[in-house]
Specification:
CATH architecture of the largest domain: Orthogonal Bundle
Largest sheet: none
Oligomer: single chain
Radius of gyration: 22 Å
Number of domains: 2
Distance between the termini: 74 Å
Number of strands: 0
InterPro entries: Cyt_c-like_dom, Cyt_c-like_dom_sf, Cyt_c_BACSU-c550-type, Cyt_C_IC, Cytochrome_c550/c551-like
Order of helices and strands: HHHHHH
Keywords: Electron transport, Heme, Iron, Metal-binding, Transport
Protein name: Cytochrome c
Helix content: 55-70%
Mean pLDDT: 88
Length: 119
């Protein structure tokens, strides 16, 4: 009886291992998720300003002077548009929330381009 139980547990563990092998993300997928690719967009400053006012001023201030979040008035001299896109998309630690579920990719890219111009 004990052999049957042990055999059953071993079989379930093997099936579970096979299922995990086929469902867990691969290295390439994890790397792509870690560094999102910014889509090609043309800067629309008006639209970017509206997006920033609707989503960013609570933490970064109405003039991007900082507050709960850092000052963004000259962020373009520190970070590239790709780096900004990654931060806005994924968030940064527990301080900056992710906006990938709140904004479309092209909206995030437009804001990243807009902020990269702030030097």
């Amino acid at each position: 009886m004990q052999k049957w139980i042990m055999s059953g547990i071993l079989a379930v563990a093997c099936i579970f291992a096979v299922v995990l092998m086929f469902t867990l993300p691969g290295r390439e997928q994890v790397a792509q998720e870690e560094k999102p690719q910014m889509p090609e967009v043309t800067l629309n400053a008006e639209q970017a300003e509206a997006t920033v006012k609707a989503n960013c001023i609570a933490c970064h201030g109405d003039q991007l002077q900082g507050g709960a979040g850092p000052n963004l008035q000259k962020i373009g001299s520190e970070l590239s548009s790709d780096q900004l896109y990654s931060i806005i998309t994924k968030g940064k630690g527990g301080v900056m929330p992710s906006f990938k579920d709140k904004l479309k990719e092209d909206e995030i890219a437009n804001v990243a381009l807009y902020l990269s111009e702030k030097k």
